[in-house]
Amino acid sequence: MSEKIYDVSADWAKRAYIDDAKYREMYAHSVKDPNGFWGEHGKRIDWIKPYTKVENVSFAPGNISIKWFEDGVLNVAWNCIDRHLEKRGDQTAIIWEGDDPSESRHITYRQLHDEVCKMANILRTRNVKRGDRVTIYLPMIPEAAYAMLACARIGAIHSVVFGGFSPDSLAQRIEDCDSKVVITADEGLRGGRKVPLKANVDAAIAKIDSKDSGGVDWVVVVKRTGGKIDMNPTRDLWYHEAAEMVTTECPVEHMHAEDPLFILYTSGSTGTPKGVLHTSAGYLVFASMTHQYVFDYHDGDIYWCTADVGWVTGHSYILYGPLCNGATTLMFEGVPNYPDNSRFWNVVDKHKVNIFYTAPTAIRALMQGGDEPVKKTSRKSLRLLGSVGEPINPEAWEWYYRVVGDDRCPIVDTWWQTETGGILITPLPGATKLKPGSATRPFFGVVPEIVDADGKTLDGETSGNLCLTKSWPGQMRTVYGDHARFEQTYFSTYKNKYFTGDGCRRDADGYYWITGRVDDVINVSGHRMGTAEVESSLVAHEAVSEAAVVGYPHDIKGQGIYAYVTLMKGTEPTEALRKELVAWVRKDIGPIASPDLIQFAPGLPKTRSGKIMRRILRKIAEDEPSSLGDTSTLADPAVVDDLVQNRQNKK
Ligand code: ATP
Ligand code: MG
């Protein structure tokens, strides 16, 4: 692992909300006195009726119960819109950048208010009430934000399903939470290609109807492309037509702190997606506070998170966190490589983006295209960079820092999960020295603990399984409709603590390094090793673009190391290169880490959010292609066939 350290510059320490001394003081307070700490910070949002209680949490077996600010009353949409109107009604809330580089729009807080009220009134006139579930299956257009905030305004629970999901996956998610209303668009637009959203909704509903179990009453359709679609006159309505029949006045519903805000299904990289439930107040306090401090957001900054609203990152860090803070947030409809590999940086220059937050999968893909598409853009406006979604290997980190950030912008490598609602382990740019590949230190109120397989707490410099011993306000409250699964998944492996499912190393400075899923920790001749370490080493070789490492049964070592390697464009997959890569890892980490088998793979199986699905690679390496499990969340199922056919070491 990289041992390079990047100090906090004097400028950053001075301008940021939080320097190192402040971090230590606030962290100590948050852990010693959570009620006092969060009782104070809960005031950052507006309350209709203030809370008198702060934390009320039990992680006890058989009684998992998580409540924050429980007797407070508020409305999330009010906090994200109405309370800003007086001071910043004419400020841009959302900059929308279309798939086509010639299309963009600025939406002010006042316009946002009016649009959200219209959408909310459309739902109210269709009899949607507080507590009802609404499925949102939209592309990255402003109406996605309107729809989510409209639900929050009237107390309905939204379930956003990423527009890249198939009719089957959509049907499964509509049924799981029994949504009576679906909001969609005629078609989506990504990278110049059309996505048949409405047709997918029709297919999903046909599937649900064939089972005669409930069904969808209303489909609201936003016109995006004007493409030809079927409209069912008793069920489907055009958004633009319905919007003409309603006003821009819509009183907010008074919600209790613990009333559900949304359900979101995890990305499914480890198995069947779980319906993660988040509630109102704690989530909003945590999302807005992390957004302010982690990105050091100041009034007037232009902030861009490239995630899709279909993922939790889009919920917390495109929408709820930034808007609650009165920020200007950029929403991008397109993809990083359309019309070409300079797109991200052209958008940065066009809108003078100051803070940029993306995923390692995008960074690695752009890295493969070389420095030139980046270097020909200015990027002078950039001040801070962020990463989320997977461990970022030091090689990609350095490229992001050096080429994208011109050695000027700190990188916040933010570790968190759909389940955690917001960022839990992360640098703060004015406080934390950076080590490429490390998510560094816990955010306020977060208490990580590393345990071994038997649940024994490991102190000091160590590695093992990552747990969290204390609750934080943004924590998920349950798996929708299945509290037993909630307890089973997160609280049964280790008693009285939340188990993240991730492997982790803590170094001598107390920094945390996420090493991948616990399932992905390999045991080679008694040495435990995170897959991320071997992958980082492989990716550091100039011929390698991406790598995924899994274990497989090995007669002598117990587990052997199986590496799937995607080469840089134009590189020949030769036997000599294979040997070179083995020698490379051996020299870099040590003989224990040298891959036993290397398979050159033109593509790796990824979730639609861009994460490598190692459990599939493990099954292939173990020669069990018939038990791949749930592959419905794969972005491109076709890569699997190639991988199975070219498996190494065929018996
Ligand atoms: P599922 O839970 O259905 O298997 P998923 O875990 O991929 O899907 P998410 O909630 O989107 O769904 O992802 C959270 C996981 O992503 C974390 O548990 C961790 O493994 C990984 N992750 C996120 N951010 C980072 C980061 N900065 N460094 C390392 N790993 C990260
Ligand atoms: Mg997960």
Strand order of the largest sheet: 12-11-8-6-7-14-15-24
Q: Specify the overall morphology.
A: globular
The quaternary state of the protein chains shown equals single chain
Task: State which percent range the strand residues make up.
Answer: 15-25%
The biggest sheet, with number of strands, parallel, antiparallel or mixed sense and barrel status, is:
8 strands, mixed
Radius of gyration of CA atoms, rounded to a whole number: 24 Å
Number of helices: 21
> Approximately how much helix is present in the residues?
25-40%
Structural class: alpha/beta
Whole-Å distance between the termini? 35 Å
Enumerate the distinct ligands. Answer: adenosine-5'-triphosphate, magnesium ion
* Overall pLDDT score: 95
- The unreliable regions are none
Number of strands: 31
